[in-house]
Amino acid sequence: MTTTKTIIVSGTPGTGKTTLAKKLAKHMKYKYIDVNKVIEQHDLTEGYDKERDSKIVPINKLKAKLKAIIKETPNTIIDSHLSHYLPKSIIKTCIITKCNLKELESRLKKRKYKKAKIRENLDAEIFDICLNEAQEKGHKIVIIDTSTKYSITNIINRLRIN
Fold it and tell me: Which CATH code for domain 7-161?
């Protein structure tokens, strides 16, 4: 088992992953990894799904690249709704961001998401898709509701306890 201190931040798009991940990385002095940039920099897409308005990313290729990054820099915060696919053996903690549905819908509208994509993401939040998948992978999970005020210090303390 790896002695990594890598933390992954996952959750439905729009639930506050990036804001939280960047704040944690800054306060903990960890390296922040934006998985979207990794996908772009290493050309890890296999096309575009017009119906879902998103890139098609082969999970195994992405996992291999992220594992290599973690090996080079074990103190990282990885930000992506796909990060929970990484094996628990190389992850210290998985943070799942949650958000109330009205707030989530508002955030997605501000991003100018199409109605179908907003509905898909609201459904993903309702059914806790990222949380359930992270649990299936056996991750140690901390849930953070970003639609209420939260304290970075309290979250860091929760991460150290877990």
Answer: 3.40.50.300
